[in-house]
Design brief:
single chain; 495 residues; alpha/beta; Actin, Chain A, domain 4; Rossmann fold; 9-stranded mixed sheet; 3-stranded antiparallel sheet; 16 strands; globular
Length: 495
């Protein structure tokens, strides 16, 4: 069934019997209150029911919440001849997600024993958290959540960068509760989120084949790892720091080890044939930094590979920090300062550190993939935009209206990513069969956006390029690179 799950979902008209109740419940949920009120005002019967059918204009079939008044006599089809032709609301994405959750439920796992016995904890001392969704037991997809690095200096109230702020502060964004990125406390059953994932599983983390056409990833068993350490799962400080009178635990490396030990030993990942470890932004950086260590934890898995989306950050191109204005500390300085405070040095590749020393650079430069990428031994698929919106705003601080500045930074990313590009173009002679998708779309996080489905380079879709590479079919190929046109806004396939 797993091989055809997406096609079955696309063809379904009525929800499977076991999923009708939760999907109908969504149609009656507070999120649908405006729709319910509009239907009731028109005299439509309630409650609304979930069906996949057309609309009053004969549009394509989608999941919608229909009033029974708009249905044919058997109540399983929309009646286009009905006088009540607008007694419905289109909710395709939400109802498809509800169906996916019903067919392949996601459960929250809190690693309380690892927190207690091994000190594997979030910034506030709460246990690691992950969500697990069962699929093909032979293929696992583990996603490392992103969310930037955090820093000691209090940020402005509009940002969520302060480590203390993440662990104990007020709401960091309008759609998140307090301390989301530094704690798992509100993810517990009595917390704000309950057991629901805090972020939607979208595009390459989705099990819906219409949103994630990659059979490899849509059908895989899946784990979403909550990011709550602020340093891309690298920190390993024995004693907590005390900031504003409260402890901060920099234990991301222990969180990483606890998560993968649990997946390997308790969830069956150790018996899988293939594992892909993905991440976006700070999670993408975590792939570059941790993929070799993760592979070492999975010695019985024949194929372990990385998928790093928007994680190739550049160092040394932002405004210098000043003692008088610590909030303006540069991105590079902040990364290196937290790395030092977190005792993250053990996460660094020894070869990279030695090469940095030979250049007169501090070891912490190896947290930037432009320095560490040549030393990665595990194959990685690099998904990167040369015009990365987050980097443009936060590192060189170039406005997207400054086309010449944007293009100049894009050329720099293209030049610095050369170690991965060379390996991707090296065919069977490459030391490691890395792959590269270098986009010219103005975006951040390609795989968690519509780019995953829509972007095309050299006649190949982004998801399709990944699937071909992950299968190993391209390991001996002449090229494993998909490099877009190189000028700003040159690609018409960008969503």
């Amino acid at each position: 069934m797993l091989a055809t799950f997406g096609s079955l979902l696309a063809l379904a008209t009525t929800p499977p019997a076991q999923c009708a109740a939760p999907m109908d419940a969504y149609c009656a949920s507070p999120a649908m209150s405006a729709c319910v009120a509009a239907v009731a005002k028109q005299g439509g019967a309630l409650p609304l029911v979930a069906l996949r059918d057309t609309d009053s204009r004969g549009g394509p079939d989608q999941w919608r919440c229909y009033s029974p008044s708009a249905l044919a006599a058997n109540a399983t089809r929309y009646d286009p001849t009905s006088a009540h032709r607008t007694l419905y609301c289109s909710e395709d994405a939400a109802l498809a997600a509800a169906l996916t959750q019903c067919e392949r439920p996601t459960r929250l796992v809190l690693l309380e024993a690892a927190a207690r016995d091994d000190g594997a904890v979030c910034l506030d001392g709460s246990p690691p958290a992950l969500w697990v969704r069962r699929g093909d037991p032979n293929i696992w997809h583990v996603h490392l959540e992103g969310g930037g690095w955090c820093y000691h200096d209090p940020p402005s109230l509009l940002e969520d960068n302060g480590c203390h702020y993440r662990a104990y502060g007020p709401a960091i964004e309008s759609h998140t509760p307090p301390a989301y990125l530094g704690s798992s406390a509100m993810l517990m059953p009595n917390g704000t989120y309950g057991t629901a994932p805090p972020r939607p599983f979208a595009y390459f983390t989705s099990a819906d084949a219409r949103e994630n056409p990659s059979p490899t990833l849509a059908n895989a068993s899946f784990a979403f790892v909550h990011y709550c350490d602020g340093a891309s799962f690298t920190g390993d400080a024995a004693a907590p720091a005390t900031i504003q009178g409260k402890p901060l635990y920099y234990r991301g490396r222990r969180v990483r080890d606890a998560v993968f030990a649990h997946l390997r030993d308790a969830e069956g990942m150790g018996s899988a044939e293939s594992v892909v470890v993905s991440g976006t932004s700070a999670g993408g950086l975590a792939v570059y930094l941790n993929i070799d260590a993760i592979r070492a934890m999975l010695p019985t898995v024949p194929r372990v590979r990385g998928l790093a989306s928007a994680g190739f950050f550049l160092a040394g191109h932002d405004a210098a920090a000043t003692a008088a204005r610590p909030r303006n500390a540069s991105f590079t300085a902040q990364i290196m300062a937290l790395a030092a405070a977190s005792n993250s040095s053990a996460a660094l590749d020894a070869g990279c550190v030695a090469a940095a020393a030979a250049r007169g650079e501090a070891p912490e430069v190896c947290f930037f993939p432009q320095r560490s990428a040549p030393f990665i031994d595990t194959p990685v698929f690099a998904l990167q935009s040369r015009f990365d919106t987050w980097q443009l705003e936060h590192i060189p601080k170039i406005a997207t209206s400054n086309a010449s500045g944007v293009e100049a930074y894009g050329r720099e990313i293209a030049a610095e990513i050369a170690p991965l590009a060379d390996a991707a173009a090296g065919g069977a002679s490459a030391r490691v069969p890395h792959a590269l998708w270098l986009s010219s779309c103005l975006t951040h996080g390609l795989a968690q956006t519509p780019h995953w489905v829509k972007a095309i380079t050299n006649g190949t879709h982004e998801w399709s390029a990944f699937d071909a590479w992950f299968s190993g079919a391209l390991d001996g190929a002449h090229s494993r690179s998909w490099i877009d046109c190189n000028s700003y806004k040159c690609d018409a396939s960008c969503p």
